[in-house]
Design goal:
Chain lengths: 328, 328
């Protein structure tokens, strides 16, 4: 492999799409971004993907002929081997969008396609929190809970492109919360940012104890966020602290289950919620130590992600690199 | 690969150890068995492993020089890469037994070592229920619940030899049953044969409804077994039927979780409990269809294992084959 091989990673999100040129060692040039505006339709969406790729190449001072491969990551339901977005909730009204074929034909460059949470996990594995381990499971904590599993230097895509939907492992049977997906008792229904807010509202409605969260709710006109819950807990509020502690417990259940199922070298937490900081991570670690098999409790590394919102396009580039190297 | 390559698979259990010569296509010669008698100590145990391997080779009409590789599978805690049994509950008082080294030195033949449930999964993948799929998750239903995961043609051993301890995924937080492992809410605490019996006893103690299970208990001097519960249910007893139905539900939760996490092409159930037959499997399938993501509910195959108690030594031989072919 030439030391001067370059890849383009493109991460298409509900709000914006970001692309960057990434070299063989995982160094990413400054990324270029355009609004996704899915509502304008998928033809425009595909054209815009091509445009942001072109701009990323130009911005990095490269030319198309320098690019060995392109990787595209998107959210939502998909057929990964076919390279098609099927019916993504975050990209309405797109349906059956032949992303990989379009990009590959447009540029004449080998192109690969991946789920965005899987790509983020591969990015962290390549040059992020997991760069020194051989296997990892990543939880992406946001509105929902996404995930990615890297084993044997590969992404666990699953037979039906549903690999690592780890937010939808069922962790409660007796008194399950309903998840955004419609199912009952999913991890996501307990520990996503959405779930934190929902649990906070329930606690405020039920609890007679006064909490600064009530002020938050009244001040910001019901704009209660997970971040506000974490900040209020950090400021010493007992109810908020309880909500944060329970969230750490739920995430520890998720982490422990993945440790008992996959036994990865590292569990990585990424996404907006890791703004909660090291204290929160240590609570998760504490519960894992209490609950997991002793060997795993002692040895499995539990870390925060390091690449932030760059993980998606870096991981997409990593997918392109695997493709070009014949390892996909 | 020569069509005449032969491997020896050895499956060491708590009661007996079984070995067989297996050819390149997965055909196994009639197996040879000796009692394990772990209580006699690990030196005798190792010598007996060598003896049963010798007898298996002789019984198959082969000679040592015909054998390309040996695979040994054992239960309990282990260090798979080191080839060492650590502290196996079913093989007391063995501790830190260097199985792979001993067998390899004794025969001068490349030897590999694996967890028995992992080996069984690889056996089913090679020539059993999963012989036409590319990935599978297997649940082994017995006194406990073991498991094996086959992905990318490899066994998911885990970083700390704890891969596929899927009986110990936590599926209940509010009102968890205690598991034999000491933890709370593990799948095994709900759906193992031991758990079925425990739940039956609780139901008999709590329920005012008369059940033929009461006769079973009185007739057999409290020798209530999971098999008796399934048979009593098949004979039309309502309480036993409820216990069986709940067991199917718990196993469906486990299967669904693995489908959402790994998204394998097939989920396989093996072990003694599959004597319950096709009706029980269809109940599991029914609950999976109700609970899993639609694409997975529709497409993921859910089957019973086909190799019975031969899966362990066939899978151990499959491990040896991977070793010899440089794929471990």
């Amino acid at each position: 492999m030439s030391p001067t091989a370059y890849y383009v990673g493109l991460d298409v999100g509900g709000t914006s799409m970001k692309a960057s040129v990434v070299d063989e060692t995982g160094n990413a040039a400054r990324s270029v971004s355009l609004p996704t505006e899915a509502f304008k339709g998928q033809e425009l969406g595909l054209a815009r993907m091509a445009e942001v790729i072109r701009r990323a190449i130009a911005s990095a001072g490269r030319q198309q002929r320098d690019i060995a491969g392109i990787g595209v990551a998107t959210p939502g339901t998909m057929d990964i081997p076919a390279g098609v977005i099927l019916d993504p909730p975050n990209l309405r009204p797109w349906q059956n969008v032949p992303v990989r074929h379009y990009i590959q034909e447009t540029f004449g460059i080998p192109t690969t396609f991946q789920n965005d949470a899987n790509a983020a996990a591969l990015g962290e594995f390549w040059v992020g929190a997991g760069r020194e381990v051989r296997s990892l499971v990543m939880f992406t904590l946001g509105t929902g809970i996404g995930g990615g599993i890297i084993l044997f230097d590969r992404v666990v895509e699953g037979k039906h492109s549903h690999g690592a939907e780890i937010g939808h492992m069922k962790i409660e049977m007796t008194n399950p919360r309903q998840c955004g997906c419609g199912r009952w008792g999913c991890l996501e229904a307990y520990a996503s940012a959405t779930a934190v807010v929902k649990r906070a509202r329930e606690a405020l409605a039920a609890d007679k104890v006064s909490s600064r969260l009530q002020e938050v709710v009244s001040q910001t006109d019901a704009e209660l966020t997970a971040r506000a819950v974490f900040e209020t807990a950090a400021a010493g509020d007992a109810l908020a602290a309880k909500l944060v502690d329970e969230t750490a417990y739920y995430l520890a259940v998720g982490a422990m289950n993945m440790m008992h199922i996959i036994d990865p070298e590292m569990v990585v937490f990424g996404g907006g919620m890791i703004a909660a900081g090291e204290t929160f991570l240590n609570r998760i670690r504490g519960y894992v130590r209490q609950m997991a098999f002793p060997v795993l409790a002692e040895h499995t590394q539990i870390r925060y992600a390091q690449l932030g919102s760059d993980a998606g396009f870096i991981g997409a580039a990593a997918c392109a690199r695997l493709l070009v190297n014949g390892k996909l």
